[in-house]
Amino acid sequence: MAQSVLGKINYLTDAQYRKAKAEGSIDPNQIYLTPDGSDIKDYVNRYTEPNYIVATISTSKKITSNARIALDTIVEQSGTKLSLVSGAVKIGEGVSKVRISASFFIDNWIAGASYGWGKIRKNGSNVAGTINSSSAAHISTPVATTIVSVESGDLLEIVFEGPAESTARAGRSNTWLCVESIE
Fold it and tell me: Cα separation of 116 and 124, whole Å?
């Protein structure tokens, strides 16, 4: 027999539920039922609220080989569990898995350079990346979507490895990181 993750079910009047919620005495591991259904709406919203962030750079940035690109602009965000801190996306409380993707548009590409490697790092370690090459004056390197386990406080950042003195182009359609909480 399956064991419930939740504790007990509490039957409260609307007034009792509002009072307990205002006092902060609602236990997130229990279900509260009220005649108007506000309790169920709160429970569902708490566990199904979308939490995502898309961050970019506001101005193009010169990069060196294996350079961290400090994100400084949020272009889309929903929820409060993900934030932009010191150029990286910080994972908040209650998030254990995220879906991540990124893209790099690099200008001033040096003709004959062997490759460009766009990476997503978690706490300084690579968790996703794509290698690309180009004979043109620029290179576009998208990092495919993947799922990563995380903990509160983890930092996700983007890094580009390629020829020195290239430029990461700013803007949502150029250089960005997307993080979405899925668990």
Answer: 19
pLDDT digits (tens, 9 = 90+) for 124-145: 999 999 999 887 888 899 999 9
Of 62, 66, 75, which Cα lies nearest the Cα of 162?
66
Tell me the C-alpha distance between 183 and 16, whole Å: 30
The pTM score is 0.75
Within 24-102, where are the H helices?
A: 38-48
**Contact indicator for 106, 141 with CB cutoff of 8 Å:** yes
pLDDT tens digits along 10-39: 666 777 777 888 888 777 666 666 666 655
Coil, strand or helix: which one is 16? helix
Give the chain's largest Cα–Cα span: 72
Summary count for the chain: helices (H), strands (E): 2, 15
C-alpha to C-alpha distance for 45 and 52, rounded to whole angstroms: 15
CA–CA separation, 35 and 42 (whole Å):
14
Q: What is the DSSP letter of 111?
A: T
Strand partners, 85: 88
Q: Mutual orientation of helices 38-48 and 14-23 as an angle, nearest 10°?
A: 40
| Pick from 54, 92, 49: nearest CA to 179 | 54
